[in-house]
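[Meeting: bench + compute handoff]

Bench side (C.D.) handed over the final construct sequence. Compute side (W.E.) agreed to return the predicted structure before the next meeting so the bench team could plan truncations. Sequence as handed over:
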Amino acid sequence: MTRSDNTSSVTKRHRRTLLAGVVGLALAGVVAGQFVPPVGGPALAQITTAQPAGTFSFADIVEKVSPAVVSVKVKKDGGDQMAGGDNFGGNVPPQIEEFLKRFGFGEGRGPGMGPGGPGMGPRGGMGPRGERPVVGQGSGFIISADGYVVTNNHVVDGADEVDVTTTDGKEFVAKVIGTDPRTDVALLKINNVTNLPWVKLADGAPRVGDWVIAVGNPFGLGGTVTAGIVSARGRDIGSGPYDDFIQIDAPINRGNSGGPTFSLNGEVIGMNTAIVSPSGGNVGIAFAIPSETVKTVVTQLRDKGTVARGYIGVQIQPVTDELASGLGIKDAEGALVAQVQPNTPGAKAGLKAGDVIVKVNNEPIKEARELTRKVGMMKPGTEVNLAIIRETKPVDVKLVLDQIPNDQVASRTNAPQSEDDSAGGKDLPRLGLQLAPSKSVQGAGGEGVVVTGVDPSGAAAQRGFKTGDVILKVGDKTVATPKDVRDGLAAAKAENRKAVLIQVKSGEGVRFVAISLEGKAKG
């Protein structure tokens, strides 16, 4: 994967280019939790174009907003490690490596490109490695007249010095106020300035199909403008729990990391962060961090220098069609609570395993990752109203978020997505499991029924059961013996359920598994 800055060291074939995997927020003053630029300096938002009849051009908008877009150069003394920027040759973060694998992109250099790009020495320098400081480049944009600048965390990561250059050639030394690696946002500050041109972060989200304009510093060339449309919203590229990217088709390349994408009224709707590319260059698939995310992060970075995230204290998983059937609910939407951790806001508010969270503050939760994002973007101490479904009935729950400990969130667990049969019983499908009370198995704990053997060709194996797993519940009934398991299956069958939920504890956490009750299994 490659990041979009001029210091990338290798163009790799068949892989995605990371332009900036973090969310940046722009703030200058804070009102009601949102950043409001201070008075002073030319505001570059709400542009009205004046074109001759019958013509269309982005020129008026570009002329107004470009002065607030900057080139960000970072330096690190000596060593062999790249200092920030979009680096083809550096180590690819594990989550991005997995992202590449998901799309089938392998490794390899593109034709005619050395480690630092065409005509460049190692690491982007012009001479032998180690003779001068390593340098990286990216983009950024000014969000207040008094010098606050937003860029990507990966652009400034590890830098000893950060320099900002405006489109008219003025250079400033910038201080890193704070960074948030989880969203790839960084906030910089240029001191002793009061009248810089700035741009506004949009309050609302763009629509798919809206025109957008991207401005940045690709390949270190300086201010470059490209245009396209919003191709999609809500993209999850696997880079972290807060993925909610805007996909655009405006040409984006290395060096655009941290640069803004504008709407036609001159407001920033996103910060460019990543592209999909087999060669390291633009192919029309780029991702930008939404302005709402940038605002939230930047506000906290400006106030405290760090980001504190809200925390419910539950482990959640997606609601599949099979799980919805087992829960007796109509729609496969929301976030299924697999486990409630003790002494957390969720536990204190009375949340239970098997609850399905369908709304947060009256906003619908369509899938589990939406809950993770919403909670993670809220501050500790925030009062939250949850709408849940418990045993097919609607319930309202109020709680106050704690600060997330040890970088955990309302975390997702990967539940098995396939479904099949169940355990022994005359008219019931077979699970293919050997079971024993947990109390009778050393080290299994004192609750539930432990799996002591798994038939590799059985239904349970297909659902991800492993030796050592502990069955805690079948349906809504707590189990302590193998007979309890069979009774729970029989009870669900008697209620004409198409599937039954089994709560399972393993080394990866607690999850629910849906077991089909339709028909008999062979064997």
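W.E. noted at the follow-up: The first strand starts at residue 30 and ends at 31. C.D. will use this when planning the next construct.
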